[in-house]
Amino acid sequence: MSPADPDPVPLPAVVAPQLRELRRRSALTLEAAARSAGLSPAHLSRLETGHRQPSLPVLLALARIYGTTVSELLGETVADRDAVVRSAAMEPTRAGGWTYWQAGAAGRGMQVLRVHVPHGAQGDIVRVHPGEEWLYVLEGRLRLHLGDTAHTLEPGDSAHFDSLTPHRIGAADEGGADLLFVHTLLQSPATALCLGGPNQGEPR
Predict the structure, then answer these.
(1) pLDDT in tens, 152-196
(2) DSSP helix/strand/coil, 114
(3) How many H helices and E strands in the chain?
(4) Count of alpha carbons within 13 Å of 154, Cβ hemisphere only?
(5) Contacts of 119 (CB under 8 A, 6+ apart)
């Protein structure tokens, strides 16, 4: 990933202290949480004090580590964990070139997103983290790298894999790709979470 967060997500003022509270609730030191997220302690400290805005991949990393969801990190709630999420309630969020919509309720053991992946955006970012991922291609073609194997997924194709397998996702065509994306939210502070390419320098 590049040295600076691409397209950081503007956060409500309450989110920065919430990041610190969630870390303390998880009984993690600043150093341990930063190491699990692939960040430096100084960078995570700036996120917790509101002096830095995180990108979507960083939010996803922190959500997984703290056993919560990005929607909860952003202060979004669904009343009484409603089973139905109406399309009108799905506000788009843009980060790192991607656009995503929360398609599931907050506070669940899985996070469900509808995602638009533009061509060339984050296609070189290798991700490794605990849990499972499932994706389903709605439109366009998706290029999925799992370990040393490359796959091209057409509309209607899906993939279900262990997230500890190094993986990269990118759009195969100029028009980008649209997909449904589900991942589990496993709290595993001892497991390193990598979001980035070969050079994972600070900060992200």
Answers:
(1) 999 999 999 998 899 999 999 999 999 999 988 654 332 333 333
(2) strand
(3) 5, 11
(4) 0
(5) 170, 171, 172, 173, 174, 175, 176
- Which residues on adjacent β-strands are paired with residue 122? none
Rounded Cα distance, 135 and 133, in Å = 7
User: Residue 107 CB: number of other CB atoms within 10 A?
Assistant: 13
In degrees rounded to 5, what are phi and psi of residue 182? Answer: -125, 135
Residue 119: CB atoms within 10 Å = 16
pTM above 0.70, yes or no: no
CA dist list (Å): 116 to 49, 137, 202: 30, 10, 27
Q: What is the bridge-based pairing of β-strands 132-139 and 177-184? A: antiparallel
